[in-house]
Amino acid sequence: MTSSELGTTVELLRSALESTPDAVVFANLPGGAEASTVSGLEPAPADLHTEANGLRCGSVVLFKADDLDGHQYLCQEVEGGSDEWLSFGRIETDPLMPNRATGAVWWFPDTGTEWWMSEQFATLAPDPTRFFLDYVAGPGYSEIAPLAHDRWYGFLGSVGLAPRTPSNSSTTFNG
Question: What share of the chain is helix, strand, coil (3-state, %, to 5)?
Answer without folding.
Answer: 40, 15, 45
